[in-house]
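User: Predict structure, ligand FE2/S2 (inorganic) cluster.
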Amino acid sequence: MGQCDEKGLKDLETPLRPEALRSHRWFGANDLRSFGHRSRARQIGLGTEDWAGKPVIAIINTWSDLSPCHTHFRDRVADVKRGVHQAGGFPLEFPALSLSEPFQKPTTMLYRNLLAMEVEEILRSHPIDGCVLMGGCDKTTPALIMGATSAGIPSIFLPAGPMLSGRWRQTVLGSGSDVWKYWDQKRAGMISEEDWAEIESGIARSPGHCMTMGTASTMTAVAEALGLTLPGASSIPAAYAEHARMAAASGRRIVDMVWQNVLPDDILTRAAFMNAMTVVMALGGSTNAIIHLIAMAGRAGVELSVDDFDEISRRVPVLANIRPSGAYLMDTFFDAGGLRGLMSRLPDLLDGEAMTVNGRGLAENLHGALVYDDDVIRERGNPVAHEGALAVVKGTLAPDGAVIKTSAATPRLLRHRGRAVVFDSYEQMMERIDDESVPIDQDSVLVLRGAGPIGGPGMPEWGQLPIPRRLLQAGVTDMLRISDARMSGTSYGTCVLHVAPEAAVGGPLALVHDGDEIVLDIDERRLDLLVAPDELDRRRAKWTAPRPTFQRGFGILVQDSITQAHQGCDFTFLAGAEGTPEPAIH
Ligand code: FES
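Assistant: Predicted complex:
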């Protein structure tokens, strides 16, 4: 019955009995309530042949008309259903919040926990035995996994897959990264309005999520490294025929997972999370992965801290030569061997015993994996960076930590001392950044506050603060920037992010004045505000908390219950692995 033997290994050979299926409580009983379930199922044209003795598989689909990364999910649902039917299951589609990164304001991060709650409650309250989670656009991946983990039923993740490379004339364009690059060039007068319009038309040309190593590519790779996808699923471009076949295969596999009672807790061990962190580093992945992995681990009852990331970062080289840390894009990465190829170069750094959705260990799934292009997926002796895609710094400015993507930063700024120029809000930053009366030079430290989980609200991706126009025109391409915001995984530059505690709850960031000296030292993992303690005490005594953003609605939950960045920004009442009671049968 999917029980564990004395070694803790799950017996996958003895399947569940049909009467032990969750859905049997709805369809299989002989009482007043089950009469209602069956008669209403017949109302939608179903019959006993559809449900009797079959696992009910929910397909959680984050498609919407305004989710360009998931455009193909309407077709892929049909592929997943095909697979479920082939394996003898009963598929049902459940639409869920699409969390469309390009459109939702102020930021999809504000709603990650809402999707997680929705998924958890959909799964718990319906006659569902297993689920296929369809996501890929940034926050959908962690949200779907967080919800399914808390619901505690067999789950498999189907990544949306990256879109194809963009193009402008002879130039290959990457999501996000090239937006920031050409926006700066436009502000500096280096490209025309016509050029800018052509780039707008060429940068996103197919279904799929961003094809740089942004948050989407990072988090779908995380899902695979955790063991929640079939091998190789995360690298397949959305538009490829392989993607449709992977969708059907995922549908087939979830049916077997139900019979074998393979639960998220069987897969989401500390070893799996360490594997995922290792893969994030080797990919040069997004800083957002830190927040999401801590939140996901919290749902599985696994302790994970920012210090774990820093420790792994020091020993894992960056091997994926993908923008923004490298040169290529995700379709080239797929052709070069994809994530399986990359992981095959890390056997000593990964726990190969960690179980995956196909019932096999990670190492077994990597048998036969090859790399076809050593420039795209580098050998260990010739990495993109010898260590440290990401670093965690602490100090008097960030007592609970802050994060920097060192692989996308300017090396000379990784040890830097400069005077602060402070912006209290995004609006104030946009007003002042090009004001020539504000004393800013290339050694200044740009500080944005009020952009954290509560202050933002929702921790928007404002952490790549703009460089003043006059400095851009003088050829300055990077400056030290510090904030309690997040940054798009497609962004680059020397940007210290996720400063915790955030300014809105009275962290030291709230006390910085224009002209204060700040020191960043990556070798020492330090971020310090050089202001005497008694002066900081005086400033703290005068500090008042900002007025709450929300007076009603979902935002109240955010204000009252969200944790800080170093704790994963989950809601306090959702963290933890204690189960929630199954719904009563009446
Ligand atoms: Fe969806 Fe980038 S906009 S992944």
